[in-house]
Amino acid sequence: MEVLLNIAKKSVLEEIYRLTGYTGLKAGDISHVSSSSDDEALLSGYLDEAISQLGDILDRTGYVSETTDTTTQEITYVVTLNLPSNWKQELKSSLTKACTQLLYNYVCKQWFALTKREDVTHYTELCQSTAVVIRRLLCERINTRRK
Q1: Which residue of 27, 62, 72, 83 shows the fewest CB atoms closer than 10 Å?
Q2: Concatenated DSSP letters for the chain?
Q3: Is residue 86 part of a domain?
Q4: Long-range interactions of 139-147: CB distance < 8 A, separation 24+
Q5: Structural domain contains residue 21
Q6: Distance from first CA to last CA of the chain, Å, rounded?
Q7: 28: left (phi over 0), alpha (psi -120 to 50) or beta
Q8: By C-alpha distance, which of 90, 64, 83, 86 is closest to 135?
Q9: Is the residue at 48 inside a domain?
Q10: How do residues 32-79 score in pLDDT, each as one tens digit?
Q11: What is the pLDDT of residues 121-131, one digit of tens each?
């Protein structure tokens, strides 16, 4: 069974701006720690690395591709999964959320390696735990019941 997950690049970048801005505000150095749309070229490179990381996690289950809306020019990442027919489809939104979290946590990890090194370990651990969640969600199955 083919399962498609859509992740908007714009929403991922907005979450990264929010996270880095909040961290910069709490650190008392918002101009040094936070990211903005001015940093989009650098963040897009990190996001490409995150997509590759997600592809590695999906391994033989699926792949990630990129599509661009011809009218709005907005980029969407499409995660295409080939799962067994007894996979729990009600977990699709949870899996989408976990994949999205992996992307912005990975980018934040890379960003903080430049600006706030003490947070790198935290985001590395978040990426690792999110990868475990993704793998667990991919393994969920509907239990068959015998009559």
Answers
A1: 72
A2: -EEEEEEEHHHHHHHHHHHHHHHHHHHT-HHHH---GGGHHHHHHHHHHHHHHHHHHHTTSEEEEEEE-TTT--EEEEEEEE--TTB-GGGHHHHHHHHHHHHHHHHHHHHHHHH-GGGHHHHHHHHHHHHHHHHHHHH-BPPP---
A3: yes
A4: 140/87, 140/88, 140/91, 141/84, 141/86, 141/87, 141/88, 142/86, 142/87, 142/88, 144/86
A5: yes
A6: 25
A7: left
A8: 83
A9: yes
A10: 444 555 566 788 888 999 999 999 999 889 999 999 999 999 999 999
A11: 888 999 999 99
What is the number of structural domains in the chain? 1
Q: Which domain holds residue 18?
A: 2-139
77-105 pLDDT, tens digit per residue, is 999 999 999 999 999 999 999 999 999 99
